[in-house]
Amino acid sequence: ATKSYLDKSLGEFKKDFKDELYGIKDDIVGEIKAMREEFGTHQYSHVRINDDIQDHEKRINKLEASSTKS
């Protein structure tokens, strides 16, 4: 094996390795983005549920207040 052959082989290995790392990085970044979007949607659903509960509590309080007046 000559020096130029080894240099060429090492260069190809570095390029292939770098390409594979970038591919893995892109996959990880894609997963993180998807998780953030899912988390945002999940958080929004909690806000809606809390709003519904508060609305129900207001309505129950009104009903209870009107039933005690009767």
What secondary-structure arrangement, pairings included, does this model have?
Layout: H1 3-69
Describe this structure in a few short sentences.
The chain contains 1 helix and no strands. By secondary structure, the chain is mainly α.
Describe the protein in words.
With 70 residues, the protein is mainly alpha-helical. The protein has 1 helix and no strands. It is rod-shaped and about 100 Å long. The protein starts with a helix and ends with a helix. The model has no long low-confidence stretch (mean pLDDT 92).
Task: Give structural attributes.
single chain; 70 residues; mainly alpha; 1 helix; rod-shaped
Helical content (DSSP H or I, runs of 4+): over 70%
Q: Categorize the overall geometry.
A: rod-shaped
Q: What's the pLDDT, averaged over the residues?
A: 92
Low-confidence stretches: none
> How many individual helices?
1
The Cα radius of gyration reads 30 Å
Q: How many strands, what sense, and barrel or not for the largest sheet?
A: none
Which percent band covers the strand fraction? under 5%
Secondary-structure element pattern, one letter each: H
How many β-strand runs? 0
